[in-house]
């Protein structure tokens, strides 16, 4: 098509034109092409959307004409005519961007109805009530989406009528009342907008297209794009499609389904339908729909046809599909297909089974699973032995267990979540306006909606536990209470949910480690075959090390030693060491610490026998181990008041020492190797403890032990040279004393910009580099993470000053450039230099991609992210040219 | 010479062989070559010294033989013979490195004396007492330097004899007593070392050479090298020279002189001498010597010969010389010559006058003045109108005024100085062991010594004020008191000194700005002709700006706006702004601040009319303007005790706000453009204040104003893009409102590593870059300067972990590499980008050299360092290839 063609018929497009037609439009075209029963229609392209914004939110020139022209083809295809009082064509108008943004933009149904065509519809359908109800819905949707009249204003009028006629449900309202309601709606429109409801279908269409294009820049769409890193200039397409009706009677219906179970991955159709309903009734969660399998009984022909369509779609797209369908007077229409969102468990099982079915190959299977999503599988689950009270059971909409304070609004959930509180968002149902609250919540609990309602879809997408449609909950938003039977919860009260089973618990529940299935192991073994990067774990304890091995880590990339100093029985000894008045006292304290540290190292090294273990010598400033200054001040003031001279003098002396050690910017102060250089006896003790542990495991237990000693915060090669000497001397001493020979490496963190800039010099003294990208990011940006995340980073992300949180996703242009320099300079000095990353980025797929690209040897991350990293490493290896 | 020749006769060397022969040896050879009366001798080369250390502090192979061989030539030249009982050759053994290290290493005189040769010396000199005194001195020096017996042990024995014979001065002790003393000395040697004093002159010589070579690595030499950045592997040469005696009677003497006055630069001989004395008596400051001019009366022939020798040396070396001479029985010997140390004033005058005399050209004159030394000229002087009490007057040994607490030991001075106290080191005399105390003191005051004593030389070298030989002072080191007439000072009491006049004041004195002479202006005008770098000043007030212009700055490179916020009358308004409960309150406070800021800007811009003024928008975190948290805590606790509810609630609320704004690492927290982005109204107010000031000066006063607005702490181009918009909008508004057109620039600091790494992106939005090397150094090293300098940097420098303090001297390998990257990336985007530096390094000559080399446009420094920078910029331009 040419630049000037702004509108394309479904019949003229295909799945490849996704960028131009949006995902929905491309799939409608593709389905049309392969012969599926799709109501005819057309797509206004994303080019039109971009022009719309370029021209100041005006419909681009020529669009109206092209629209009219293509619409006339649709009229021919359907045999109906737009605005025809006898046989009116009605259409839906829906947005559809290249990237799926479910529920984020606007949709209008039943467009084309007016005071005349509604009569024609009634006559054709032989159902006046149906036609009036369509008109009523259309005015309401159009009024809300296009004319910006609050939804609630229409709902109020509807509710008045319900009350007036004593109806409990909308479908109990009769034609005459609906006709009155339509007049009330029209008055509302006139009153709110100053003009009458537009009767001309062409005018309706152009207004609707304008509104849908404008919805690309509505608040919630912007937020959604920010969260999902979708570019703002992509634009949306608009699909205009002939309406079919699922609400024309008992031989009608509508439904949504997945071609496989999106929770478990099982290869059976999974979904829900409603008889005599329009699509929005299913998605909005207002009526609780029936499981799809029941359709086999209710409409066996349609069921068979639907199954065939699903098979065709899967074999065509080679992917699990999420389908919307409508049955109009016994005839099946497919309204939409797209790749189905799924849980991690389902993603893994579907990928594996599709390989077994011959639909895709192993590499494609690896590509199919989002590494980030695997974290779901590793979520803790509710302990089956728990004796917590189950207060209610809802639908298990998104797996995993979560606990937190009850929050009744998205704003409140956001506020508490940002303040570091754990929150469960409790709502009757959620809407796209609640996204910001769901982001900050641990989990979501709703009293209404099915497995495919908004809350369920969004929570699954984010990997957060959700329980929906839990009808036992009585939520009173006005008074801020949640009543479940006898129990009453207010904001701040604790509850728990189990998204795997749908249970809701009182208070906090015990959770247990998840069990990983065989499919999971199979997928990751394929991943390891493809990956070039090795995956290590950060682990400080034997238990962590064991978890790391279980998740498939082939080394420890960062074993921090400071946590060993923090243990309750050791802290007093550590404090004695720090506050020692002289060399002897200090050495005495160190002598006490040595066997403790040695024991720690024995445990970890034994757990990792055969694999490298990188142990970082002490990193935090020593004052972190001392009592809090403010607390000491308080004690001093209190002792002054009490007049206890002896205690006062002692506390005062301690306070003075603590004050002397305070720092203006501890992050950049006396820590890391600076401590090891000023007080070499500390590093010496640690090195001895490591090597004594090694000598014991090698000598007495005959294990293969691969210790690597890592010096933190090196910025100048002389720092490494000096501390390295201490380590080497300790190793020689231990070897001489024990008579056990062992090999070891000495290396350094690259976490200070200067280390990266002078990596050629530093590599002279380092056998390995490990990028500490947490600190490297802090110093490269000049961001103190503690301060930035609370004070300005959120604003930066919201306002797109930064494209992403650099502490979550490696900043390639800045920090990444330093890493590349360090790598090139380091390898120039020492070609066999081993280089890895041990910052949190080591578990982030986008960062892992970068690590692969620049040529790192390994990434190291928390044990629970090891599977994520293994898969991400495989994906980047698959997609990179060899 | 070949690698194997370790010893060279004076007659075989020249001034060019400085590295091999050391400064002293090369000059002795050169003087011998040009026919000056130099006692014959030989030099053991620095190669021998390096071998000495390579071979574990053993005299290198072949040295002894070569020494004996060359010594036999000296024997022939002198007609005396080493160890000959009748006509013994005596020699001095002195160290002499390529770089002058005055007094840092050891010297031994009169070597060759023993029980036999002392008789020959007595006979030849016809003076038994003289010979015995020489022997006594030799044993003492040898015993101290070679055998490491404390000097005091010998002095005790000497003092006993003085008391025993009732002598006040050593020269009153007669021969017989000296003979006894010699026996006492020998016993002391036997007792302390277990062996007898060595009688064999060859053995004496080898032992002395060993000791002098070893003295290269003594404590004070190591400290001196660290302070003066002298490489450790340079090594020292050793000069062995025939002794001549200034202490053979009234027709003998010894002296030191400068060929021009080292304080003022006046072209007259300047120095001191003593009749009947050895050189050490002058330098040690034990006897107070006579001014050199008196020699014209006392020894007219020698005076004439000395003047001729000085003229020859100056015309030969084309440099002011520092000479040691001895007169033996009426015959003049020149013992040493070297470039004379001088004050800045003298350096400037000498350089200028040597150009006028045709000795050197202008460029050479520019090279001759140490830019760092110019700071002396800019030192504040004692206000002539002061009414402070002058308690004593000593010799004006090093110019400038200083005040501080009395400290009686170098250790104490160091301790207090490091703690940030101002200290005057008060000593009877100083020795090389006191260096560390002088480094930390504001000034030095001694009761003994002349203008060339240790304290004077060292203080002048460091540019610190010093008053020496102030005999009115009674210093009691044991009791820690300084008595001057009626007054008594103890450690910690305040005194002041004026090193320009020699006055000592009670308490603190008023000081005034220095006046700069015509020579100074002439030299700097030559400098400006040569320099490529422009020199701007950092100035925050109109007074600073005027000083900057006076010192020749051609722009303001950094005008900080935060100090304007700190003024006493503004701080409450600033606090209102920060603590504002809502937008309106905040805007009201900003509206009050705007006219104040505008007034500041008018003053500075007017003072700099015609020159660029770079104004930096607010940089510090806002909490810096709030009350101290600890103080508030205290108030709260006190109000709690007092039970004052209303006041307590108010204070508590303030405390809560202050606490909420606290940061873990404020240096990397919510400051700089981060404040301007979160609170754009602040930057907007500042921009409006700047542009309203500009509009007024341009519109009403018709001045040429060149404002440049600088955004601090930018790390990502989006930060600059966003803040730039605010500035540009303010400029447009002001132009529209006032109808005055003006031009301006917007640029940024490059002070965050990421800014340097992404300078190509940032340059899109910046018309200039200014390197903020203080912060850039902090973040590149990960050093919080506040913490580093107090906690570990001193240790790093002492132990050579770092070669220099990176906050004083730009770190080329790390920070410098980032600067180079930023420059290349920035100019690639915007070839006409103006680039400068405004960190403290902008006034450091070594850093200025680097700035020139990488192609900066300007450096900006404090007004007082502008002359330093102008000269340094000229020097690097002269020495760089064009």
What does this protein look like?
The structure is a homodimer of 882-residue chains. The longest helix of chain A is centred in the last third of the chain and has 25 residues, at 583-607. Chain A starts with 6 loop residues before the first strand and ends with a helix. The first copy, chain A, has 36 helices and 31 strands. In chain A, helix 20 (542-550) links the parallel strand 24 and strand 25. The model of chain A has no long low-confidence stretch (mean pLDDT 90). With 882 residues, chain A is an alpha/beta fold. In chain A, the strands form six sheets. Chain A has an eight-stranded mixed β-sheet. The first copy, chain A, has an eight-stranded parallel β-barrel with strand order 24-25-26-27-28-29-30-31, surrounded by five helices. Chain A has a five-stranded antiparallel β-sheet with strand order 1-2-5-3-4, sandwiched between helices.
């Amino acid at each position: 098509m040419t630049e000037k063609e702004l509108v394309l018929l479904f019949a003229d497009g295909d799945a490849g034109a996704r960028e131009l037609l949006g995902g929905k439009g491309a799939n409608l075209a593709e389905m049309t092409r392969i012969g599926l029963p799709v109501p005819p229609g057309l797509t206004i392209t994303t080019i039109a959307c971009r022009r719309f914004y370029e021209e100041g939110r005006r419909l681009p020139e020529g669009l109206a004409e092209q629209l009219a022209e293509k619409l006339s083809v649709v009229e021919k295809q359907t045999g109906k005519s737009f605005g025809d009082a006898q046989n009116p064509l009605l259409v839906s108008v829906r947005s559809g961007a290249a990237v799926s943004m479910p529920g984020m933009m606007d949709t209008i149904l039943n467009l084309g109805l007016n005071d005349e065509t509604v009569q024609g519809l009634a006559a054709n359908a032989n159902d006046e009530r149906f036609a009036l109800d369509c008109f009523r819905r259309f005015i309401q949707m159009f009024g809300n989406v296009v004319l910006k009249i609050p939804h609630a204003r229409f709902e109020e009028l509807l509710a008045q009528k319900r009350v007036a006629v004593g109806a409990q449900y909308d479908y109990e309202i009769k034609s005459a009342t609906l006709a009155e309601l339509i007049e009330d709606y029209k008055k509302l429109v006139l009153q709110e907008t100053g003009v009458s409801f537009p009767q001309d279908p062409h005018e309706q269409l152009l207004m609707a297209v304008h509104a849908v294009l404008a919805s690309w820049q509505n608040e919630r769409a912007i937020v959604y794009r920010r969260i999902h890193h979708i570019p703002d200039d992509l634009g949306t397409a608009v699909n205009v499609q002939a309406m079919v009706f699922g609400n024309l009677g008992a031989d009608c219906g509508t439904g949504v389904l997945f071609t496989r179970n999106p929770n478990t991955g099982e290869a059976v159709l999974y979904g829900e339908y409603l008889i005599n309903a329009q699509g929005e009734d299913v998605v909005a969660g207002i009526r609780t729909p029936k499981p799809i399998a029941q359709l086999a009984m209710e409409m066996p022909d349609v069921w068979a046809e639907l199954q065939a369509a699903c098979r065709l779609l899967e074999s065509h797209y080679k992917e699990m599909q999420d389908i919307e369908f409508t049955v109009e007077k016994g005839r099946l229409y497919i309204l939409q297909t797209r790749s189905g969102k799924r849980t991690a468990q389902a993603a893994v099982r579907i990928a594996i089974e599709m390989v077994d079915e011959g639909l895709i190959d192993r590499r494609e299977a690896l590509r199919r699973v989002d590494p980030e999503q695997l974290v779901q599988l590793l979520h803790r689950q509710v302990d089956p032995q728990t004796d917590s009270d189950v207060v209610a059971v809802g639908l298990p909409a998104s797996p995993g267990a979560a606990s937190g304070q009850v929050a009744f609004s998205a704003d409140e959930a956001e506020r508490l979540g940002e303040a570091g509180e754990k929150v469960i968002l409790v709502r009757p149902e959620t809407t796209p306006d609640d996204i910001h609250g769901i982001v900050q919540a641990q989990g979501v609990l709703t009293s209404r909606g099915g497995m495919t309602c908004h809350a369920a879809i969004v929570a699954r997408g984010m990997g957060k536990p959700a329980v929906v449609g839990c009808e036992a909950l009585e939520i009173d938003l006005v008074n801020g209470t949640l009543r479940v039977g006898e129990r009453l919860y207010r904001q701040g009260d604790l509850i728990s949910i189990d998204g795997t089973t749908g249970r809701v618990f009182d208070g906090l529940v015990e959770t247990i480690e998840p069990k990983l299935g065989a499919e999971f192991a199979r997928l990751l073994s394929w991943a390891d075959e493809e990956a070039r990067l090795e995956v290590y774990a950060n682990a400080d304890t034997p238990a962590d090390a064991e978890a790391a091995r279980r998740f498939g880590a082939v080394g420890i990339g960062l074993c921090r030693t400071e946590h060993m100093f923090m243990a309750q029985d050791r802290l007093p000894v550590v404090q004695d060491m720090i506050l020692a008045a002289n060399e002897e006292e200090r050495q005495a304290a160190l002598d006490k610490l040595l066997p403790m540290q040695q024991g720690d190292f024995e445990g970890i090294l034994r757990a990792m026998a055969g694999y490298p273990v990188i142990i970082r010598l002490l990193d935090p400033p020593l004052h972190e181990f001392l009592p809090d200054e403010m607390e000491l001040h308080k004690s001093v003031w209190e002792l002054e008041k009490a007049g206890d001279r002896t205690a006062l003098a002692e506390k005062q002396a301690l306070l003075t020492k603590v004050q002397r050690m305070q720092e203006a910017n501890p992050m950049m102060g006396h820590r890391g190797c600076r401590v090891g250089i000023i007080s070499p006896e500390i590093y010496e003790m640690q090195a001895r403890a490591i090597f004594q542990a090694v000598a014991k495991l090698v000598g007495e237990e005959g294990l293969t032990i691969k210790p690597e000693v890592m010096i933190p915060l090196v910025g100048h090669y002389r720092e490494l040279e000096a501390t390295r000497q201490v380590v080497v001397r300790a190793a020689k001493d231990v070897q001489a004393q024990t008579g056990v020979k062992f090999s070891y490496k000495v290396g350094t963190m690259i976490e200070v910009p200067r280390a990266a800039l002078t990596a050629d010099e530093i590599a002279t003294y380092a056998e390995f580099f490990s990028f500490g990208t947490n600190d490297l990011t802090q110093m490269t940006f000049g961001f103190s993470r503690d301060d930035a995340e609370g004070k300005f980073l959120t604003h930066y992300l919201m306002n797109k000053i930064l494209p992403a949180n650099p502490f979550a996703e490696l900043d390639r242009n800045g920090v990444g450039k330093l890493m590349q320099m360090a790598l090139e300079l380091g390898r120039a000095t020492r070609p066999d230099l081993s280089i890895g990353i041990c910052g949190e980025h080591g578990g982030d797929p986008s960062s892992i991609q970068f690590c692969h690209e620049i040529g790192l040897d390994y990434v190291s991350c928390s044990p629970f992210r090891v599977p994520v990293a293994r898969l991400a490493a495989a994906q980047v290896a698959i997609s990179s040219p060899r």
